[in-house]
Amino acid sequence: MAAATRTRLHPDARRDHILDAAASVFAVRPYGEVSLGDVASEAGVSRSLVSHYFGSKRGLVMEVMRAFAAAAPEAVRTDRELPVDEMVGANVEAWLDYAEEHRETAIAMSGIGALGRDPELQALVEEIRERVVDRILVNHFGTSEVPRELRLALRAYTGLYEVAVSEWLHAGRMSRAEVRILITRGLFAVLQDVVPALLAENSAD
């Protein structure tokens, strides 16, 4: 009887497989508690192979963060044919689902933990912030070309989301239901009250 032949993956496929395994591990365990060996075990490969593709643990975790930054804004969908209240509610729920599924990665994106305020990490946070703002603008105004006051107000709103999620997932001082209310009603407050006040202030000036 012939011996079983081990499947050999293309290098890109092998790298993607390791990255997927790392994303699963870092989603549920803090960066400081995970070793390259843990990721290798999850991926079913050797530690040296993980090092070959990603160099160090920091190199690996930054790739996980880049993948998170690329995918996270897609939780805010721009194709929902719903009344505005329902559309915002659905997008908030989807965003919270994504954060909960990638708990430790979402916490790290808030600057908490071993990575702290790493400049490269902050660049990824900026990428998420801008893409989320663009998607909110498209949902509410049909375009991302809007007055500076509106964009700046929504950028500040994303900071509210980051703090609220940290209070929920990291500190445990807020429930998911409380976070949902805060960021849902907070968005309407920004759009309906804060932005008109900013526009009026600058018009008066």
CATH topology call of the largest domain: Tetracycline Repressor, domain 2
**Care to count the β-strands?**
0
Query: What is the architecture of the largest domain at the second tier of CATH?
Result: Orthogonal Bundle
Q: State the domain count.
A: 2
Question: Alpha-carbon distance between the termini?
Answer: 86 Å
Largest sheet: none
User: DSSP strand (E) fraction?
Assistant: under 5%
Radius of gyration: 20 Å
Characterization of the model:
It contains nine helices and no strands. 73% of the residues lie in helices and 0% in strands. It has helices at residues 11-28, 36-43, 47-54, 57-71, 84-101, 103-109, 119-141, 148-171, 176-204. The model is unreliable at 1-6 (pLDDT under 50). It is elongated. Helix 1 crosses helix 6 (103-109), helix 2 (36-43) crosses helix 3 and helix 6 (103-109) crosses helix 8 (148-171). It has 205 residues and is an all-alpha fold. The chain folds into two domains: 11-63, Arc Repressor Mutant, subunit A; 66-204, Tetracycline Repressor, domain 2.
Short description:
With 205 residues, the protein is an all-alpha fold.
